[in-house]
Amino acid sequence: MSEDKSLYTLRNLQSGENEDGHLYHVISKEHIDEVEKSWKPVLQSHLSDLKEKHQFDTDAFDAQKFTDEAGKLNIQDAHWRWEKKYELFSTQIGYSSCALVCDGNIQGLGVFDITEKYKSRIITEKKTGVVYIEYIATAPWNRKQINNQMYGGIGLALVTHAINVSFDEGMEGRIGLHSLPQAEGFYKNVCNMEDFGIDADKNMRYFEMSHEQAADWL
User: Fold this and answer.
1) Whether 99 contacts 118, CB under 8 Å
2) pLDDT tens digits for 42-55?
3) What is the DSSP string of 125-186?
4) Partner of 123 for a Cys bridge, out of 30, 80, 128, 207, CB 3.0 to 4.6 A?
5) pTM of the entire structure?
6) Residue 112: which CATH number?
């Protein structure tokens, strides 16, 4: 991107007021440290409660029920180690990242593969690259499934940034991703991305946005 950060408007769902969010075009080590400090304890607390409820690590444990409920609670990323992910995407060519900050706290993170190794499934007559969304995550206090949601508009800002990255990288706004089950409705109904069904290789549903859709989005 041409600047190191962009301004996005977020909705404070507690006050009903709009607030300025600053989206940094590179995730820093300081961002990661803050996420480990502020996000992780909340997610781990919910994960521990869920493990206790389902008698984790006993003969009574039902892995499928546990996984299903973790999805409903939107805590499937509770096991993510952002410091390990940072070591990967910050030291290798081919990744773009962003951190959305509002009210002094990190409200969302995004990591994107810009190498064009992921090809469009919309354009089939030639090999055409897309910016692939590796990770999009919002702070736990913005997830209505587990908290009294603080801010709205985090996902919209991160998707918008991914589209801008795609234009900057010469991929004309095209983006693609494999979605966790609880986010499928967002990508299909809010982002209007094309649904290509379950990808057998990842056992996740693949969504893609075309150049035309990206231009309309912006």
Assistant:
1) no
2) 999 999 999 999 99
3) SS--B-EEEEEEEE-GGG-TTTS---EE-HHHHHHHHHHHHHHHTTSTT-EEEEEPGGGHHI
4) 128
5) 0.92
6) 3.40.630.30
